[in-house]
Amino acid sequence: MAETAKSGATPLEGDGKRILVILGSPKHDSLCHALCEAFSQGARRQDHVVRHLRLGDLAFDPVLHGGYDQNQTLEPDLLEAQRQIHWAEHLVFVYPVWWGGLPALLKGFFDRVFLPGFAFKFRGRSQAWDKLLSGRTADLLVTLDTPRWYFRWIYGAPAHRQMVRTILGFCGIRTRRLVEFSPVRISSEEQRQGWLRKAELLGSRV
Predict the structure, then answer these.
(1) What is the spatial distance between Cα 104 and Cα 108, in angstroms, rounded to a whole number?
(2) Which residues, at least 6 apart from 160, have a Cβ–Cβ distance to it below 8 Å?
(3) Which CATH number among 3.40.50.1820, 3.40.50.360, 3.40.50.11320, 3.90.226.10 corresponds to the domain 18-204?
(4) pLDDT at 13
(5) Is the pLDDT of residue 109 over 60?
(6) How much is the average pLDDT of 26-52?
(7) What whole-number distance in Å separates Cα of residue 87 and Cα of residue 82?
(8) Buried b / exposed e across 154-173, counting CB within 10 Å, b at 16+?
(9) Is pLDDT above 50 for 161?
(10) Distance between CA atoms of 32 and 30, rounded to whole angstroms?
(11) Per-residue three-class SS string for the chain
């Protein structure tokens, strides 16, 4: 289920920002999970209110079977996810790049949750649309096995373009920071600890 009461958020929200950290990896024991915790620790230290949404814990069908041609009932966890996204001022997506793109679970989450009427709305039969999630910002913490330069200049960074432009930007969410942690497969324990410190620092500078 989406975390609310057990998210670590304080009952009384003060002047800090409302932050929703979304873990887009289905793995429970991973570098992405550790980055989520480190970022959250840094943010809470600055009195921000942090909630977590771990997609691997949610019960939902990630396949949008009929596209937008027919309604597909949202599972309770996805309805709660929409409420959490509406609550948040700042979203943090933490996920790995697999096969140059988003994990299927994260892409399925967007397919099911970022629906017309929630994330965007077309204006009649025109090409114009309203960005219904405008006013929110996002950080992307992304792990890769591919070296950063190779992913950008040889592959063209397809996962980054998809997230920043065609998903978040399309719905009005402005990406503030995209931070890569790479290459993971050959990284040392010392490097990983350094990445966790970096994630904590990012959280303290929302």
Answers:
(1) 6
(2) 140, 142, 178
(3) 3.40.50.360
(4) 56
(5) yes
(6) 96
(7) 9
(8) eeebebbebbbeebbeebbb
(9) yes
(10) 5
(11) CCCCCCCCCCCCCCCCCEEEEEECCCCCCCHHHHHHHHHHHHHHHCCCEEEEEEHHHCCCCCCCCCCCCCCCCCCHHHHHHHHHHHHCCEEEEEEECECCECCHHHHHHHHHHCCECCCEEECCCCCCEEECCCCCEEEEEEECCCCHHHHHHCCCCHHHHHHHHHHHHHHCCEEEEEEEECCCCCCCHHHHHHHHHHHHHHHHCC
Q: Is the pTM of this model over 0.85?
A: yes
Residue type, 183: P
So where are the chain's domains? 18-204
Q: Give the CA angle between residues 159, 162, 164 to the nearest 5°.
A: 105
